[in-house]
Each structure stands twice: as C-alpha cells, then as structure tokens.
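Reopening this one. Same input as before:
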Amino acid sequence: METSKMKMVYVITQRNNKNYWNRIGVAFVNNDGSLNVRLEALPVSGELQIRDYVPREEGAGYGLSRERQAPGNGANDLLAELA
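Same output, byte for byte:
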C-alpha cells in the first residue's frame, strides 16, 4: 500500500501538564479523498488526531519523530504510542 494513503489515528490526553499521544487506529484515503477509519479504541473525549503515516527509522527511539509533533508541544512533552 502506498504510504501516502495511510494515516495514523491518535487520541491526545493531558496529565500533569504533559500531552500523551496514544495511537488508537489507522485511516486510509480513498480515491475520492474520503477516509476509511479503523479504530481499536474509542476516545472518551470524542476527539481524534489523524496524521500522515511516517515510517520509523531503524534504531529510532520510542515515540513520534520531531516532524510529527503537534505545534505547541515542547521538547519535554512525553509522546507515547500504543503498539
């Protein structure tokens, strides 16, 4: 599958002034631009963050790369993904 058509679905929760990103599913872009979303969990807040899929580099640490951090999230924020 072409990676530009695949997206990751996250829910962002805030605890102790830190944002935690938890991957809860994937989304796929259809030919007409619409999305098919497959969730493994439902967010309590009802709010989802859908981002382009960016493959991790081999040997990279756990979490999101700098390019994928949301604006306003400082370098000290802990970004966690559910495997």
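So the earlier flakiness isn't reproducible anymore. For the record, DSSP finds no helices and four strands in the chain.
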